[in-house]
Amino acid sequence: MCQRLCRSICCIRFSALPTGCEIKMADPHFNSTHRPVRQMHHGIRVHPDFPVPARIEIFTPRTWGDKAVKVSDGGRNTAWYLSTPWGEAVLRHYHRGGLISRFVDERYLWISEERTRSFAEFALLNELHAQGLPVPRAMAASYQRRGVTYRAAIMTERLHNTVSLAQAISRAGPASIRLVEPVSTAIRQLHDANVYHADLNAHNILVDDAQKIWLIDFDKSSRRPMTASLREQSLQRLGRSLQKLLGEQGVIFSGQLQQHYQQSGKNR
């Protein structure tokens, strides 16, 4: 399915951009674009459902002016809400975490186009969405390569009227117990599809007004056999996040979540 989707990806012309932004469109190429820009090459992929122009400039927040608003909740301060002609979107730049980020914050070693962080997440997100999993569609993804390194960005559709799981639990107080079942179900659905989420934390689980659960930020995530060990590892990571953000309230919710997850597995 992933391969069929990638074959259907196309880059198209689109002239409607934010006021004050003038981007001259070039003839698109099927699937990806590769053009030298000051000794730099770039590639772009676009989901066929969105009329996104295959231009590297759209992955730069300043292109959008006041139509780009920085996301304040979670992440590494590298995501923006965008108001675009093809819908509300979230733009995220890939940045390293940990100690290495002090030296190389946004560049990665080049191996191949398919193994860039952005193209890998683009393909996985759209494959999971097509299978009915609670994830947003990826609108477009890009990389810019220079020599043996590259940097990358991805644009996903924005999920409206949502808050992070941490916010939802904090606001609901004791009533947050109602979220245990839908959160457990969403995580089990992901695990049963043999998908390992590399950063399952309380910021990357969203809750909408109808208490539907959404999973976001699949950077470094992958398909793999989800053993009991990996499932437990995923839940423990989420538990640590909840404890860090919510203290005792997070510990209580995490315990209820693990209990429901384990029980739902026995009932299958």
Structure description:
By secondary structure, the protein is an alpha+beta fold. It folds into two domains: 2-157, no CATH class; 162-266, Transferase(Phosphotransferase), domain 1, CATH 1.10.510. Helix content is 31%, strand content 22%. The protein is built from seven helices and 13 strands. Strands 1, 2, 3, 4, 5, 6, 7 and 8 form an eight-stranded antiparallel beta sheet that branches. The chain has a three-stranded antiparallel beta sheet with strand order 9-11-12. Helix 5 crosses helix 7 and helix 6 packs antiparallel against helix 7. The longest helix has 19 residues, at 228-246. It is globular, with a radius of gyration of 19 Å. The two termini are 27 Å apart. The model is unreliable at 2-38 (pLDDT under 50).
Biggest beta sheet summary: 8 strands, antiparallel
- Low-pLDDT runs: 2-38
Give the number of DSSP strands.
Answer: 13
What sort of overall outline do the alpha carbons produce when their principal axes are compared?
Answer: globular
Residues in helices, as a percent range = 25-40%
Q: Nearest-angstrom radius of gyration?
A: 19 Å
Task: Give the averaged pLDDT, no decimals.
Answer: 86
Total discrete domains? 2
Structure class:
alpha+beta
Quote the beta fraction: 15-25%
Give a quick set of tags describing it.
13 strands, three-stranded antiparallel β-sheet, Transferase(Phosphotransferase), domain 1, disordered N terminus, 7 helices, single chain, 268 residues, alpha+beta, eight-stranded antiparallel β-sheet
